[in-house]
Amino acid sequence: MAKIKREDVIEEALELLKEGGLEVITTRRLAQRLGVESASLYWHVKDKATLLGEMASTIIARYHTIKTPHDTEQWEKWFIDHAYSFRNALLAYPDGAMLHAGSIPTFNDLVQLAPKTEYLVQAGFSEREAQMALLTMGQFTLGSVMEEQTRNKRRILKSSPMEKVKESQRDADIDTLTSNVMNTIENEAENAFEFGIQLIIKGLKK
């Protein structure tokens, strides 16, 4: 039987995620890939929830690497860059947003919030405002990416809302407004994300 380390379990789980999304990640399949018995995985991760949390934390540590600058006058640019960095990390793997949303934050995840909060406090926000700004940005980004990744799955399955609208109105013309709205939903995820982040910035500046 193969000898494995905790890092081996997490990396192999991430490979599974890349290949088939969250649906294919089971302890049985993971154990088979690693050449061990399912029970031996629990020497390294106590349960599946812990595994998913470690996977999410690894993705964030690997791809969401933006640092807080010294110049607090640049807080707006940093806030936008921070949001995009988080977005890109979630998009790095299929179901990245769903994984992050359903995982338990690790201690390291929570530690990373302190310097970001302190940076916004130094920029003139109260501690409460800084915390809520980061929470709002995080939840908006998470929801935005979750929608985007779900739409990508629908495209693969050829079951997008636009196709359903066309099917339901096969014998009638789709009005221009409906068509434009559906096109925006299906094809302008990044533009919508940018628009939303700018709205958050405007709210913070008031």
What key phrases describe this protein's structure?
mainly alpha, Arc Repressor Mutant, subunit A, Tetracycline Repressor, domain 2, 12 helices, DNA-bd_HTH_TetR-type_CS
Detail the topology: elements first, then pairings.
Blueprint: H1 6-20, H2 27-34, H3 38-41, H4 48-63, H5 75-91, H6 96-101, H7 107-111, H8 113-122, H9 127-157, H10 161-168, H11 176-187, H12 189-205
Helix pairs in contact: 1-4, 4-5, 5-9, 8-9, 9-12
Domain HTH tetR-type: 3-63
DNA-binding region: 26-45
Keywords: DNA-binding, Repressor, Transcription, Transcription regulation
Model description:
The protein has twelve helices and no strands. By secondary structure, it is mainly alpha-helical. The chain is flat. The N and C termini lie far apart (62 Å). The relative contact order is 0.10.
